[in-house]
Amino acid sequence: QVQLVESGGGLVQPGGSLGLSCAASGFTFSRYTMNWYRQAPEKERELVATISPGSLTNYSDSVKGRFTISRDNAKNTVYLQMNSLKPEDSAVYYCNVRVLSWTTVRPYWGQGTQVTVSS
Question: How far apart are CA 39 and CA 87, in angstroms?
């Protein structure tokens, strides 16, 4: 079965850095676009960054220039390096992949990892 396991969250001061990892299994990792989402309390889940099988990347305007998404296909792992962190970056961060089964796209999610940016 598809499984996504996240790690690396924690408490960091404003302006600091934090790196997240997502270990994937149960599918051919190298063939899929991988995504990072985040969700703060009382807010909708939002897309933060994406990376294609060919390592093309895209970012939300709010994190562009500060966050970097990358992948290591040999390790079946996608990363999110977060720099210059702001309090508004505080959220639960989720790893995601979307798999097309026949005519239906099904999302898979990691368990989430808490990132708190506070002094």
Answer: 13
Structure tokens at 27: 């599918």
Neighbours of 112 (CB within 10 A): 18
- pLDDT of 100: 83
Q: Strands 113-117 and 10-12, how do they pair?
A: parallel
- Cα–Cα nearest to 99, from 3, 27, 24, 4: 27
Sign of CA dihedral 29, 35, 36, 37: negative
Task: Identify the pLDDT of residue 101.
Answer: 77
At 78 the pLDDT is 98
Tell me the per-residue pLDDT of 79-109, one tens digit each, with 9 for 90 and over: 999 999 999 999 999 999 999 878 899 999 9
Cα–Cα distance measured from residue 98 to residue 109, given in angstroms and rounded to the nearest whole number = 9
